[in-house]
Design brief:
The complex is a heterodimer of chains A (about 350) and B (about 650). Chain A is α/β, with parallel strands linked by helices. Chain A has a single domain, classed as Rossmann fold. Chain A has 12 helices and 12 strands. In chain A, helix 1 packs across helix 7 and helix 3 runs parallel beside helix 5. By secondary structure, chain B is α/β, with parallel strands linked by helices. Chain B has 20 helices and 25 strands. In chain B, the strands form 6 sheets. A 7-stranded mixed β-sheet of chain B has the order 11-10-12-13-15-14-23, with helices on both faces. In chain B, strands 3-4-2-5-6-7 form a 6-stranded mixed β-sheet. A 5-stranded mixed β-sheet of chain B has the order 20-22-21-24-25, with helices on both faces. In chain B, helix 1 packs parallel to helix 4 and helix 16 crosses helix 19. Chain B starts with about 25 loop residues before the first strand and ends in a 17-residue tail after the last helix. The chains are: A alpha/beta (about 350), B alpha/beta (about 650). At the A-B interface, strand 1, strand 2, helix 3, helix 5 and helix 11 of A face strand 9, helix 7, strand 11, helix 9 and helix 10 of B. Strand 2 of chain A pairs parallel with strand 19 of chain B, so a sheet runs across the interface.
Chain lengths: ~350, ~650
């Protein structure tokens, strides 16, 4: 892994966003992942999503654990601070970072080893805590950095590069997130940018914990016949259930879809989440139905993708804690320190 | 003293009983209450201590409790000392024996000439009698039976009855106790009358049927009149608020739990805005790993954050502590030590985590440690630790223990200087970044080993960097170049030397004597009493109370300038000695350890005996233990070649 700065040259015809910035302003250093790695597509989708939303590129906190996926915060949003922490422990670092400054957009990138094995406890508990962040798992079913061991999300019977089948049941992080109470749960595919970019936008703007499980094939160790996390397998077995478009407040909303298949969700910031459904009977605001659908599809060997569940009105951790709008890290000493007189009151009670 | 084999007096004996006459003493005794866990005794026992404290008498309390909620034996001990001795002293002067299960050992623990207060509703088993102690029987069960029909109430009021009996036996101002009952049940007024009635039942029985008061008595004093009574954990929590901590992440573990709980309690009082907004965030995490991760995430993002834990939690936080050391992130960890290893004795005290705390993590790592001895230092060090963490950009570990953390101790009132400003360390703001050419997170601009950091979101163009546990250069870029890695590790050592200048200095009392004793944390509590006893034998010692690691030059000087140097600590392996040898390179044979690791706090007796034995070995003169006689004035001075 090297740290290569990209040349800061802007093509005169590159489009600019509302802040006058181009997509290049949202990029990071050159990726050192393998050519064709799904994770690079996810990073590119993050860059595009943030640029299109015209978010200030320095107002993010990027956090990750350890693994190939966890390297990726270097590869997007280089004007923001990043924290590549400890294996499986990104959720706790993200929690602390979000508690300290609620104004930053928090993006956590993790992998299936990081979140479904060593960090499964932390994953479960950050969902419970409703931290306002976008949590992406680059899910390739394998330990890439240590050369191809099965991970806990690898399907039973899916084979290794040498043809050895995985003998254990997979852990499905989407089902876990739904069950524990995440207010935004999606699954996507790194090769499906049209679906992924709007999902990232919606997840970023969602208030509360937004989770996207992105199937992101590992070209080095898990992209062969017999793997259920290969490009070919995922392309052939994907069932797009609900697509989501993020429509900023004030933007014109046009209808180009047949009614009944279309659902608009009002977001707390005045924006709209437009959901396009494949099945009219599917209600993405019904947690139980979402769980059932995910499990049924998994049984049939299919991967359902899209925004599977959303609760736009959910409270986040700061609501629960009753903290002020001013970030805790910006509170003045005079607010934090109660002073000598108050201490006299404390002393009096201890006499 | 009478022969222990002599049959004891019959039940209900007045206090003046069969034992040799004891001269009346005031405000100087150890009383222990033996109870059953969960029986409601804690409230009555706490009132006892507080009543004495309100009479201006110095008290030090000790809860000796099992890892259990209900049904197992528990003891509450109060050291009452006009001289202000706060440490533990062996031997019980008054035993309030209310637990049948431990009756035998409780009776055995009473000093000759001491007193046993017991419920003589049933006659005392002849086999349990000791002829060299005084029996004070109060038929508590019989007394409450007709008064309180509800059996549950009856059990609770038994505790109040013995408190009432004690008020008459040792002369506690009854008004003080009844006043406390009224204050305690304010708002639940229907509880006040029955409690006062129960107090009177016990008190009146003693006044009517026993010859009182005992020769062990209390009387009003000024020794504690301007003091407060507080445990170290609460003091630390209050200090953390004054130190500007906004994030507390923790996982329940005895004996640290009450620190986080006190933080919440005091935050609700001191940190809530008029509009109800709470200027703090407390997370009870899923485990200690997460607690530390939350602290580090908050510290990275510029909020003052801390966690409180004990040994097992410290073990779990070790990987994260290494990250915070290497990535240079402020964090504060309170380790309220208990007896390890493993689950060890989870409700007993020890100073056994020094080495695992000082070097927590794989790789070359070291963390500054602070050692508070009193509630006042818990308060002060809570602020100091947060300042040091920001200044040094590294985890600061405060090494308290169960003895200090969970027991009420007499302390000076907390003070705060409103002119004091918190030290946020080297943080560049947006306008600072505008002024500088190039920003390098790990550049040693000032030559003190500490770089300048920026917080996320500070500036649109400048100052962003990537924080990582992997090796990097001065500009935070990943590298595995040997020179860059080594230079970074060397800079961290330079920072360690800076820390040496900033941590709290030891407290010294150096009168140029030949013998010195070093100690730290709660080992300081029994030291004054141990020293007084040694002085009575004609040996006076210089003292040094270590308050931090790394060690300042004072520590080395103290060892160099004393012929005999003791180091008292509460662990088996002399862990502080190891730190001294590692950090200062002192000759290990220069330090004689005084060690205790049984789970109670170290007593004055232990220190006195171990030091005395060693002094005999070294031929230090005028010890009563060898020559008899003794007396003041024969103080060993320097330059006499006592050792070997």
């Amino acid at each position: 892994m090297t740290f290569v700065a990209k040349p800061r040259v802007r093509h005169p015809l590159l489009p600019v966003n509302e802040l006058g910035l181009t997509r290049r302003d949202y990029e990071g250093s050159v990726s050192t992942l393998c050519a064709g790695c799904g994770h690079d597509s996810v990073s590119a989708a993050i860059v595009q999503a943030c640029a299109e939303l015209s978010l200030p590129p320095h107002k993010f906190a990027k956090v990750s654990g350890i693994g190939c996926s966890s390297k990726t915060p270097s590869y997007f949003l280089s004007h923001s601070h990043g924290f590549n922490s400890v294996h499986g422990r990104m959720p706790s670092v993200a929690t602390g970072a979000n508690l300290a400054n609620r104004e930053l957009y928090c993006i956590g990138v993790s992998g299936d080893g990081d979140s479904a094995s060593i960090g499964i406890g932390q994953f479960a508990h950050i969902v419970r805590r409703r931290i306002n962040m976008l949590y992406i798992v680059d899910n390739n079913g394998t330990y890439g950095l240590t050369k191809g061991q099965f991970s806990a999300t690898n399907d039973k019977g899916s084979t290794s590069k040498r043809g050895v089948p995985n003998l254990y049941e997979p852990i499905d992080l989407v089902s876990m997130a739904l069950q524990i109470g995440a207010s935004f749960v999606a699954r996507s595919f790194s090769g499906d940018k049209r679906q992924l970019v709007p999902l990232i936008q919606a997840g970023l703007m969602h208030k509360g914990f937004a989770f996207i499980d992105v199937i992101s094939p590992c070209v080095a160790f898990n992209n062969h016949n017999g793997s259920t996390k290969s490009y070919d397998y995922v392309r052939g077995h994907t069932e797009r259930l609900v697509s989501a478009d993020y429509i900023a407040a004030g933007e014109e909303i046009t209808v180009d879809y047949e009614s009944g298949m279309l659902e608009d969700v009002a977001m707390p910031d005045g924006s709209t989440l437009r959901l396009r459904k494949v099945d009219e009977d599917y209600d993405p605001r019904d947690r139980v139905q979402a769980l059932t659908q995910v499990q049924r599809s998994a049984e049939a060997g299919e991967v359902v993708t899209g925004l599977l569940y959303v609760d736009a009105d959910a409270a986040d951790c700061h609501d629960v804690l009753g903290t002020p709008a001013t970030p805790l890290n910006a509170l003045d000493d005079s607010v934090l320190c109660p002073g000598a007189e108050a201490l006299e009151g404390v002393n009096a009670q201890l006499r | 003293m009478t022969d222990r084999a002599t049959p004891a007096a019959p039940k209900g004996d007045p206090a003046s009983g069969t034992v040799a006459h004891r001269r009346t003493s005031y405000n100087d005794f150890v009383i222990r209450f033996a109870n059953v866990n969960g029986s409601g005794s804690a409230s009555a026992n706490g009132m006892f201590a507080k009543a004495l404290f309100r009479m201006g008498i110095p008290v030090a309390t000790r809860n000796i409790f099992p890892s259990n909620i209900e049904g197992l034996p528990t003891w509450f001990e109060v050291r009452v000392s006009e001289k202000g001795y706060a440490g533990r002293r062996e031997g019980i002067d008054i035993m309030v024996a209310m637990n049948a299960e431990t009756f035998t050992e409780d009776i055995e623990s009473i000093v000759a000439g001491g007193y046993l207060l017991y419920d003589n509703s049933k006659e005392l088993d002849v086999r349990l009698r000791r002829s060299d102690i005084n029996l004070v029987g109060v038929p508590i069960s019989q007394l409450v039976l007709p008064e309180f029909p509800n059996p549950k109430h009856r059990a609770l009021f038994k505790n109040i009855v013995y408190l009432g009996a004690l008020s008459a036996l040792i002369n506690i101002d009854f008004e003080v106790i009844t006043g406390m009952v009224s204050a305690q049940y304010k708002g639940k007024d229907d509880l006040i009358a029955p409690n006062i009635h129960a107090l009177q039942i016990g008190r009146n029985y003693v006044l009517d049927y026993l010859d009182g008061p005992l020769p062990i008595q209390v009387r009003y004093s000024n020794a504690a009149s301007d003091k407060i009574l507080v445990d170290g954990n609460a003091a630390a929590a209050i200090g953390a608020i004054y130190g500007g901590a906004t994030v507390c992440a923790w996982y329940p573990i005895t004996p640290s739990t009450s620190l986080a709980e006190a933080f919440e309690q005091y935050c609700n009082r001191l940190r809530v805005d008029d509009n109800g907004e709470r200027n703090f965030a407390i997370i009870q995490a899923e485990d200690e790993l997460a607690a530390m991760g939350i602290v580090i995430g908050a510290g990275w993002n510029g909020a003052r954050a801390f966690t409180a834990t004990s040994g097992p939690g410290l073990s779990l936080m070790t990987e994260f502590l290494g990250l915070a050391y290497f990535a240079e992130i402020p964090a504060v960890l309170w380790d309220i030590q208990r007896a390890g290893p493993s689950t060890g004795m989870p409700t007993r005290t020890q100073q056994g985590d020094l080495l695992s705390a000082a070097y927590a993590s794989h790789g070359d790592t070291r963390h500054p440690l602070l050692f508070p001895s009193t509630p006042n230092e818990c308060f002060d060090f809570a602020v100091t630790a947060l300042d040091l963490a920001d200044r040094l950009q590294t985890p600061i570990l405060v090494m308290s223990d169960l003895e200090l953390g969970m027991n009420d101790n007499m302390a000076d009132p907390f003070t705060w200087d409103d002119a004091r400003r918190l030290d946020r360390g080297k943080v560049l703001r947006a306008d600072d970044l505008e002024k500088i050419e190039t920003f390098g997170r790990y550049l040693d601009v000032d030559g003190d080993g500490i770089g300048y950091r920026t917080l996320p979101g500070t500036h649109p163009e400048k100052g962003a960097f990537f924080t990582r546990g992997t090796s990097r250069d001065e500009y935070a870029a990943y590298t595995e170049a040997p020179e860059a890695y080594s230079a970074n590790m060397d800079r961290l050592l330079k920072k360690w030397e800076t820390a040496r200048e900033l941590v709290p200095a030891p407290v010294l009392e150096d009168e140029g004597r030949a013998v010195g004793i070093m100690f730290y944390g709660t080992t300081a509590l029994p030291i004054p009493e141990a020293l007084d006893r040694l002085a009575e034998d004609g040996v006076e010692l210089d003292t040094m109370r270590i308050r931090s690691f790394p060690f300042t030059d004072d520590v080395r000087d103290f060892i160099d300038t004393h012929e005999i140097v003791f180091l008292a600590e509460q662990n088996r392996d002399a862990q502080m000695k190891t730190l001294l040898v590692n950090d200062l390179g002192v000759d290990p044979s220069r330090i004689d350890s005084v060690l205790y690791y049984g789970g109670f706090s170290i007593s004055a007796d232990t220190i006195y005996e171990q030091v005395s034995a060693k002094l005999v070995q070294y031929n230090v003169p005028r010890l009563r233990a060898v020559g008899g006689g003794g007396g003041r004035g024969a103080v060993p001075r320097k330059g006499r070649e006592y050792r070997r």
